[in-house]
Every structure is written in C-alpha cells, then in structure tokens.
Amino acid sequence: MPDTNSSMKNLPVTDIHSNQSFLRWRLLKDSLARYGVIAGGMGVIFAVVMIFFYLLYVVLPLFLPATAELVSQYDVPEKALGKTVLLDMEEQNEVAARFTDTGKAVFFLADTGKVVSIQAVAIPEGVVVTSFSQGSPINEGAVVYGLSDGRAVIVKHTYKTTYPNNKRLITPALEYPLGEQPLVLDDSGAALEKIAVQVGDNATTVIAKTAGTSQSAGRIHLTGFEKEQSLFADEATLQRTDAVINVPVEGVADILIDKEGRNLYLVSSNGRLAYYDISDKGAPALKQAQSVVEAGQKITSVCFLTGDISLLIGDSSGLVTQWSMVRDDKNRMAMEKIRAFKVSDKAVVDIKAEQRRKGFVTVDTAGHFGVYHSTAEKELIKEKGVGPLSTFTISPRANALLMQTDGTLGFWRVNNPHPEVSFKSLWGKVWYESYPKPDYIWQSSAANNDFEPKYSLIPLVFGTLKAAFYAMLVAMPLALMGAIYTAYFMTPVMRQYVKPTIEIMGALPTVILGFLAGLWLAPFMEEHLAGIFSFVALMPFIVMLFAYAWHNLPKEFLEKIPEGWDSAVLIPVILLGSWFAFAVSVPLESWIFHGSIRDWFKNELGIGYDQRNAMVVGVAMGFAVIPTIFSIAEDAIFSVPKHLTVGSLALGATPWQTMSKVVLLTASPGIFSAVMIGFGRAVGETMIVLMATGNTPVMDISIFQGMRTLAANIAVEMPESEVDSTHYRVLFLAALVLFSFTFVFNTLAEVIRQRLREKYSSL
Q: What sign has the CA pseudo-torsion 646, 651, 652, 656?
C-alpha cells in the first residue's frame, strides 16, 4: 500500500496547499450540511410542538372551573318602601331595580346600593297589591301587579343609555304598554291571588287566579289583548278576549305562560302539572296533566329555562328536574322529564334561568346557591350564601348575581364563560330540547339566543373516519397493485412514462378535484348509479376473460408484443368493458329493480340517497390519495436489492413467488409507510370533503349518505365564530383532536414500520 504522507511530500508545494484547501472546504460544506439538516429537523419538531401548545392554550379555558366572588354587601336600598317582590339588573350590571309590594320601583347602583331614582307604579288608591309576576325577560322587563279589586297593572322598566362627556349614563324609567289605567280581569272584584303575564309587540296575555267570595267561587281568568291597526285610524285599537279555565283553583300554586303566549302551565304544590294550549284565547284546551315529582314530595319552585321550551321544577328533596316537550311514538307532543340535578339535601326555594344560555341558578332553604348548565348536565359553582335568601336575580349576561337576605344585598361577580362544555356534551349522548331521545348532534349556531348549542364531536370524528375509510377502500387496492406491477413487472421504458404521470396526479389542487366531484361526478353517479354497480361487478370478469383469451393466443402473435408492455393492451379492454357495463346497466336496472335502483333502495331497504355522499368522496378523495401511496410504495418495491430477486429466481422460485415471498416482505416497511401517509392525507383532507358531500354532521354508515369531517367543519365554521367564544374554542378543540389523532396514529405506524424493518432486514 503506498504511503500517503510520502506521496504528499513528493507533490509541489502549491498542489499540497490546493489539496488542503479543497479538503477544508469539503469538510466545511459537510459540517454546514450536517448542521443545516439538524437545524431543519429541530425546526420542524419545534414547529409541531408549538402548534400543539398553541392549540392547547386556546382550548384550556374551556375546562377551567367557573367562579363566583362576593364583591360588595350593603343594606337594602329604601327598605321602608316595602318588601321586595322582584330584583332585576340591566345588561351592564350597573343599575339594579327593586320592585316592592307597595308598588314602588327603587333603582340603585348594583355594586354600592346608591339610589338612582324612586318611581311609583300607577296603583290606584284604596287597593292593595295581592300578587306579582314577571314576564319573560326578553320582553323588556314587563311585570304585572295583581290588585285586591280584581284589576291588574302592567308596567315595564326600561333603561336608556347616553354618553354625556364621553361617560356612560344609564337612566331607568317605567312604561305602561297597555296604558296606566288598571285592567279589569275579574268583574266581581275578587282579589287576584296569583297572576302571570306575557307582553309582546302585538299581543299580551294575562292569566289570573282569583280568590273566592261570598257571591262566587275562585276562578282562573285568561285575558288576551291584541293590537289591531285600522287602515283609516292613526292609533291601534286593543281587541280583548276573555275565557275562564275550569280547574279547581285551590291547588294552583304557580302559573306560567310561555313567551309566545301559546302555552299555559298550572302548577300545584302537591306535584301536579297541567299543560294547556291557549293559542285560541277564547277556548283554552287541556293537553296534559301529570305528576312531576316523586311521591311524598312537593313542588317548591318552578321557572322556564331560556327559550320557554322546558320547565325547571324544584322540589322539597333538593332535586331539580327538567321537563320538556317531546314527540312520543304516536307523534304527539307531551311533557317528559329529560334530566335531573341533585342540587341540595334541602328544599329548593327558588330557581332563576339565565337569559341567553341554558344555565340556571338555584337557592335552597339554607341560602346556599349553585350554578348549573342543563345541556352540559354540569354543576359549575356551589357556594354558601350569606344567610337565608328572600330573593335574588341573575344579570342578563349571567356574569353577576344580586342576592337579598332579610336586610342586606350582596353583589356577586361570576366568571363562567364556557358552561356549555363538559365531557358528556362533547363525547356523550345528550337529550336536547325538542328531540325524541338522547343523541349525538353537532349544531353550533342559530338565529336567536334561545338556541341550545350542540357541540358533540362524535359526528365529526365519525365523518372523518368514514370519509377516510371509503377513500382508502378505493385508493389502496389500485395504488398498491399498480405500484407492485410498475416496480416489478413493467418494462423500464414504460415505467418511465407511467410513474411520472401518476405522480403528476398528486400535484392537482384538491379544490379542483372537489369542484369537479361536486359539480360533475356527483350528478353523474346519481344518474348512472346502476352503471357504477355494473362496472364494479362486471369489470373483474371482463379482465379475467381477456386474460384467458390472451393466454390462449398463438405464440407468434404474443411474441410481437414487447415484454413488459402487456398492460398497455389492457387499456382498450378496460375502456370497452366500461362502455359495456354502463350500456347493459339500463336494461338490467329496469328488469331487476323495475325502475330506478335509487327508488328500490329507498322503498325496499329504507336506504335514502343523497347526491353528494360517501361514494362520491371515496372516488374523488381516493383519486387524490392514489399518487401518494403509489409513489412511496413503488419506490420501496423498486429499491429492493436485485441480488435478492436474482437469487430467488436462481433457486427455482417463480416471479410471483419471488414477488410475494421476498420482494413484498423486504419492501413491507415502505409499503406500510405509504399506506399510513395516504391515510393521514385522507383524514386531513378538507376541500374535497367540503365540496363533494352534503357537509351534514350525520352518523350514517351508508355509502349513499354524506358526512362532515373535523377538517371541513373547522374550515366552514371558523370564519363565522366569535373570537374566544365557546364555539371558537370548541373548533380549536376539534383541531387538537385531529392533531392528536394523526400524531398518535403516525407514531404507532412508525413503531410498526421499524419492527417490520428489523424483522426483514436479514433478507
């Protein structure tokens, strides 16, 4: 072996310096490349980790506990004006109102108790207040006073906001929607013991229970006022309708009217609930009467949940149940208990519902209060009060509470931004209002605040897996079989055309594929559904028949076809076979199914057909995934060392045996990686699913029904969501679920791939 050092010594000095400079420059480039690759790899890892933590940062507030803090406590403002019958707050939590049993409205600052103004309700002289009720909060603070002479006064408390000197000023006022003159509800002059009111823009409904007199027994009066605008009059006139509800009044402890003035609920203290349809004010109709508490218990409090679809009923055992209108098996609407909350061991004395969400606050006899959310079925806050409470109110935004004991008021700040989210509301079946049974539903928004948000992620996860399953069902056989043939059997010249062509398919924008799938492929498959099934059923037989015929052709003819170009001959056969399959599908559909195959599926099997469905997604997204799987798998198979295949053939194995026993096993890590990468592509695909399906979050395994995936849902709803809202953060949670799923799945795939590599590395 020659001595390198002696050789260097024999070189000229300039050549030695030149070689050393070249070596140093080469080492520098190697170092730069090595550190560049390391930096790039670390950058990718850092970016992935930062994405994960950012998603976690946005999602974490969903699961932080709600809190309530007592901010201030002060004496009841103007206590001498009478007992409090209602506490209320305006939206900004600045001004509160206290209505008294003497007909006074005291407006004061909610956090300090400083009186802003005192206004008297137009109560006639010589009568006393015998009942009081608050209308629906959405009707601008309407309340009604029932009087001892059978009359009633309806009044609204409103708040006008101005900005003098760039400072907000809230000015309270009283208004009389039906005039200051009291309304006569009972001509006999009997006192109104119980009363309820709903005031709308064009109609007002009042229900009153009167006490019995020496001349008459107690009754329940229904009075409706409707505004009618004449074509020739400037002012609207009130049309009045009266009716009497025949029910024993002795047991009626509470009266509730829904916000539309169509449904009436009469509650008795012994646990009975009667539901009336009062759409026709002149002819109220009893629809249902039933017991709503356990035997031996009494109803102690009742109120509407926001939207007035459900009732919250508290009893003497500390249980709060939610009763809602549910359509039964006979397609009739009936009240049914859909959930229950054990809020205390003591009787529930009062329940107040939030105005804009499906939450509510309860208070027991000891003054302890709790905040709950009906849909999430979750206790959010449990606090000990400052003593037995006489009344309380919750602010319109549900971020403050005002609680009154015998002589003091307490102002509480509430931090409860995301009550709708719980493990059950995200991942479990929930019985939503107006639904016949518990179900998984995603429906994140609606037109008004009465809507019950439905944030179940199960339909989105199901849709994601369904879309990926049908896409892989189409892509895997075609891509893997094509890769095996191209890498092992195809002639190199033909491979030079086939492989780049398929790889170019992967460069097509998915939005173009989705556009074509939605506007061309979906209508085509709907019109030629029988042809699609004929193609799938007949094509294998056509190919096998051609292979048999090809095998029996004369050798002189076969030798004219260059080796490895056999598959090119199959192209016209597939085209002719496709034409034949679609041509025969028309008479076959008419003969076998007596008309349309879609109608047969619907009438005979009960399977509906949506134009944009999983079958369209499977074909379109499979077309997008095929290049990825094909390219990686083909490279893995083609890279199998030639000495393995040559050695196997030399030992007498056939090409198919060599391919199945040697080549595929050696290339299995790469093939597995190709499948996993293709699956990840299918799971994360957005535009094809968005444009080629109905994009409805339904859980139906049928290939003829659509779906909504996690990625498509994020793309659709993220632009509409309010930043930092519950909807916004739940969408980020969906992104975190998708991220975690792909990360875990790819990690497991990498572990399996490494084990396959170790197992077959000795081949």
A: negative
CB 174 within 8 A of CB 234: no
Environment class of 118 (CB within 10 Å of its CB; exposed 0-12, middle 13-18, buried 19+): middle
Q: How far apart are CA 284 and CA 302, in angstroms?
A: 22
Residue 188: per-residue pLDDT? 84
Cβ within 8 Å of residue 402, ≥6 positions away: 87, 89, 96, 110, 392, 393, 395, 409, 410, 411, 412
The CATH number, out of the four listed (3.30.930.10, 2.40.340.10, 1.10.3720.10, 1.10.10.10), of the domain defined by the range 458-760? 1.10.3720.10
Cα torsion angle, 280, 284, 287, 291, sign: positive
Structure token pair of residue 375? 């849909």
Q: Is the whole model's pTM more than 0.85, yes or no?
A: yes
534's enclosing H/E stretch is helix 529-551
Q: Up-side HSE of residue 340: CA atoms within 13 Å toward CB?
A: 12
pLDDT at 749: 82
Name the phi and psi angles at 143, rounded to 5: -135, 165
- The percent of the chain in helix, strand and coil, each rounded to the nearest 5, is 40, 25, 30
Q: Which residues contact 48 (CB under 8 A, 6 or more apart)?
A: none
The pLDDT of residue 214? 47
Handedness of CA 758, 759, 762, 763 (dihedral sign): negative
| Distances 679 to 504, 626, 665 between C-alpha atoms, Å | 19, 10, 21
Q: Which residues contact 715 (CB under 8 A, 6 or more apart)?
A: 686, 687, 690
CB 135 within 8 A of CB 197: yes
pLDDT at 71: 93
Q: Name 355's Cβ contacts closer than 8 Å, sequence gap at least 6.
A: 137, 138, 306, 394, 396, 398, 449
How far are the Cα atoms of 79, 100, 364 from residue 390, in angstroms, in the given order?
13, 13, 11
Decide if 297 contacts 318 (C-beta within 8 A).
no
Task: Say how far apart CA 495 and CA 508 lie, in whole Å.
Answer: 21
Tallying the residues shown for the chain, one arrives at 763
Given a cut of 70, the residues of the chain with pLDDT beneath it are 1-17, 139-140, 212-218, 229-236, 249, 386, 447-449, 564, 761-763
Tell me, what's the pLDDT at 271? 86
pLDDT the model gives residue 235:
65
**Residue 750 DSSP SS3:** helix
Residue 308: alpha-carbon gap to chain centroid: 22
**pLDDT at 554 (0 to 100):** 82
Q: Measuring CA to CA, which residue among 364, 394, 356, 409 is closest to residue 382?
A: 364
User: Are 241 and 226 a contacting pair, CB within 8 Å?
Assistant: yes
Give the model's pLDDT for residue 447.
63
